[in-house]
Every structure is written in structure tokens, then in C-alpha cells.
Amino acid sequence: MPITSIRTSRKTTATAIKIIIALGLALIYGCSSQSSKQAQTTPNQQQNVNQHTSIEQPAEIKKRSASTKKHDTQQKAKPLSTKKHIAAKKPDSTTTSIKSTETSDLWPRLRNGLQLGQHYNNPGIEKQVTWYKNSQSYIDRVISRGQPFLHYIIGELEANDMPLELALLPAVESAFDPLAYSHSHASGLWQFIPGTGKRFGLQRDWWYDGRRDPVASTEAAIKYLKYLNKFFDGDWLLALAAYNSGEGNVRRAIKRNKKAGKPTDFWSLKLPRETRAYVPQLLAISRIIANPEKHGITLPDIADKPYFTKVAVAEQIDLSKAADMAGMKTKELHKLNAGYNRWVTHPEGPQHIFLPIHTVNKFQKTLASTPRNQWTPIKQYKVKSGDTLSTIAQRHQVPVKHLRKTNGLRSDFLRIGQKLKIPGTGFDSPLVGAMSIYTVKPGDSLWKIAKNKKVSVRNIAKWNNLDVKSPLKLGQKLKVQANGNTTSSASLKKLRYKVRRGDSLSRIASKFDIKINDILAWNKLNPKKYLKPGQRLTLFVDVLNI
Question: In 377-416, where does DSSP find H-type helix?
Fold first, then answer.
């Protein structure tokens, strides 16, 4: 080929290559531009894709959400300060899910976890359903009491893969009253008797009763219910019946039916009357909650987020003082910390309090600036002639060992004029109201005065250095503290007691730490007549003394 032709061909080829490259670049740019335009004009499409992706993994998200809620409910207060930092981060689908859940209503979450619906239409619960349908005011009161605890309880049940009907069990047991008390000495939200509470690890001493601690008792109740469910081969109705009357009673009822060739399900068993009503009550209220509109019931909105958190304290703190530091009413703080018998934290542990999350920052700032010697007001007593350590302890309702430990005493020897610190005397804090003077009138008793003044018998005794069983004198002057911000009267409970074989007035009075004369007055009894088995008595007891 001639050189000229070769050169011409090369030029032509180079030109063609440039044209092709240019066309290619134009095409690529056009596609890119079109893609960018689509992204700008269809944001909803992209949003829908993200939502769809999030929905495709509900189980994982639900698991993470439940885990996070459990942590948030029991977390130390310190991490709360990192919320702003966390919120500043770009949330992933899980974080978005949690945020959405925490701002939504709790009831749908509860309904999604109901597992006993197959029993809701059993004729055996219709009576209870009718009662609840006609008791809107009662439901309002119970839900109001339960509101601080429901989120925590639901989270714990979810973590243990248990039916969320069980979250409503405290409504049946105690009406969500952490200070609830029964004639069988059952106490707290979940109504543990002392023996069962001890069996499932609940601490109980002069300072503290874990049965009334909302967190400790919930953990123990879950352990007990899981044990019962396994004991009865996964039958939740039998487990619930046993929770009420004991596994021994239910097991014996099952054996009787097997021997007689009868069915052994709950509805077929011959159980105590209370138990036969107990399980239907839970199923009935669960059915109402599952579909309140159908039954003409209105439920208040409850946010699906933790209400309280655990805050550790380095030393004992009086609950009235803590409430003041947190900027909240003492009454509300007592509800969350009902486990403390003396309204002061335990000197040896547990050494923490539960606070509404929104009060934590204020509490921590005030606590840090308050000297520790002001955390717990402790009364001082000057030893007088004739005093002994035991008489002083009895007068102030303090165990001798605690009196000895608080004052670093190696023996019971006392000197006249010696000053003793009286532990657990946070009631004397000026934070809870001013003192007034009451003059004893004919027919008065400590109980009667306490009831009228809406304070506890124990408090009046403390304020006046009296024994709770001390007789009163006509014209005697008593110091009584204003009740404005206290819950002393909340621990005074009315009981209906059924007289048992072998009972006497003295035995009943000793059992509930009350006076015989008060039992006589409350029930208008003739002291010369004997009690009869089956007789019903009305009693008023201070649950913190038992």
C-alpha cells in the first residue's frame, strides 16, 4: 500500500475513534443524568424500598428492640447523659424501629403478645367479663396504678418468651398496689407469701422486703411462673392455678381426676373456690384488653417506653430527701421503692433507688452537691436513768443489732447522758410536713387517731417515743405530722380475716401486730364471747410492721 494511503487511512481511523469515544461519553453522561433526575423526582420510591427492607426482618428487629428496652429500664443513670450523642448519629433500621416503638402506645404491643386467646370464649369466664365490662372506674384506677410498671413487666415477659397475659396478673393479685397485703401474709404487686418469696430469692429483713420491690418481685414471679409451667407440662392455666393455690393442691386435684377417669384440664378440676375464680379473672381482663371497644371499655394511652430506671447511691438515703432532690412528690417515689420498710435505703444493700427517668438528671446534680451527712436524717437519743439497749430499741422499733451496729457498740453497756443514733428514722425529716399537737379524747386509740389523721400507727409512735401497744391517757398530748407529701397511710391496709380453728383474739393480735382492743372495736365484739371458726373479722394492719 502506498505511504500516502497509509497516512490517510491512519488519520481516518483516528478520527473515527475520537468520534466513537465522544459518542460514548455523551451516552454515559446522559444515563447518569437521567438516573440522578429519577432519584431527585421519586424520593417516595426510595423511602418505600427502605421501609420494605426494614419490614422483611421483623423478628430480628423485635428481638433487638426488646433487648434494648430491658437495658433502658434497668440501666444506671449515667448513660442517660449520652442520649444526645446517640441521637446525633444516623439511625439504622433497628434504631428507627426502637424510636418508633417508644413513642407509640403500649397496648398494641401487649395485644401482639397475648397467647391464651383460645380460652377467652370459655363459658367459665363470662361472669368475670360482665363484671369488668361494667367497671370502667375500677379499670381506670388499676391501670393508673400499673402504668409505671407495665412497660418493664412486658419487657421481662417478652425476654422470657412468656404470654403477655401475665403482665395483667398483678391487676388480679394486687390491683397493681405495691403495698397490697392479704390475710395470708402475701405482699406486693405479685403477692408473694414469705416462704415462696424466700424460695425464689427475695431478700427480706427489718430494712427491706423484696416482695414489695417492683423489679425484684417481677423477676421472682417470672422464675416461679416458668417453674410452674414446666411442672405442668406447658399448661399455663394449670400453672396459674398453682400460682394461686400451690402446685401441691393442683397436682392432687389432677390425681383425683385421673383416678376417677375424668379430664385433667383446669376447667375439669375440683379446686378451691378462690382458684376457680382466679384464672377466669385473668382471662376475662385479658379478653377485655384484647378488644376494649367491643366491651365498651376505654383504655388510657400508655407510652411504650421505660418509666423508671435504677440509680445507685453510695450510702443510705432517706426517700423523702431523695424525692426532694429529684423534684417529685414523696408519694410517687414511695410507690417505686415500696421494698424499703423504713423509707430509707438498706445500709448493706440493696443500695439503690428507682426514679422516673425524667427526674434523674436533677437528682444526680443535687445529690452531687449535697453532703453525705445530709442524705439520711438520723435521730439522736440521750440515754436516761433506767434505759437499756433493748428498751431503747423497743421504744423506737429498731432491732437491737441494728442499734448496736449504727453506734459501733461492742457491748450493751450504756452511760447516762450517752447519745445514740437511731437508725431508720428518716420519718423525722422536716421535708415531710410540720408537726401539730393532738389531745387524746375518750375512746381514742393510736389506730383511730392514725386513721383520722391519715398517717400510720408506727409513725405516731415514733414521733412520740411510744410503743405501738402503749395505752393512751385522756388528755395526753401527741405530736402528729402533717400528711401533705407523705404516704404513711398507704401502708395501713384493711383486711378481711377468716377465723381458723384454734384462733384467739390474742393470737390474731400477735399475728398482725395489732391490739386486742382495736380488734374488738373494729368488729364490735363482746370480749366475753369466744371466736368461732369461719367468723369474719375486719382488721387494719400496717404492712411495713409485719
Answer: 389-395, 400-406
**Mean pLDDT for the chain overall:** 78
Distance CA 423, CA 421 (A): 6
My answer on whether 277 and 386 are in the same domain is: no
Residue 526 predicted with pLDDT over 90: no
Q: Cα 367 to the chain's mean position, in Å?
A: 24
Task: Decide if 96 is inside a domain.
Answer: yes
Q: How confident is residue 486, by pLDDT bands cut at 50, 70 and 90?
A: very low
> Within a domain: residue 257?
yes
Residue % of the chain over a pLDDT of 90? 44
Q: How far is CA 292 from CA 128, 138, 143, 454, in A?
A: 15, 14, 13, 36
Does residue 230 share a domain with residue 147? Answer: yes
Cα separations in angstroms, 334 against 322, 338, 486: 10, 5, 9
Asked whether the beta carbons of 331 and 486 are under 8 A apart, the reply is yes
Helix (H, G, I), strand (E, B) or coil at 375: coil
How many Å separate Cα 409 from the centre of its chain?
Answer: 38
Q: Is the CB of residue 281 less than 8 Å from the CB of residue 127? A: no
- pLDDT, position 15: 52
**Which are the contacts of 151, defined by CB distance < 8 A and separation ≥ 6?**
69, 73, 106, 302, 303, 304, 305, 306, 307
| Chain CA centroid to CA 179, Å | 11
Q: Is the pLDDT of residue 484 over 70?
A: no
Predicted local confidence at residue 435, as pLDDT: 58
Residue 308 — φ and ψ, nearest 5°? -130, 165
Q: What is the DSSP letter of 538?
A: E
pLDDT in tens, 310-338: 999 988 898 888 999 999 998 899 999 99
Q: Domain range holding 271? A: 110-295
Is 467 inside a domain boundary?
no
Q: Which residues are designated catalytic? A: 173
Please report, for residues 19, 52, 65, 178, the alpha-carbon distance to residue 57 in angstroms, rounded to integers and kept in the order given.
50, 9, 12, 38
**Spatial contact of 185 and 194, defined as CB atoms under 8 Å apart:** yes
Domain count within the chain = 6
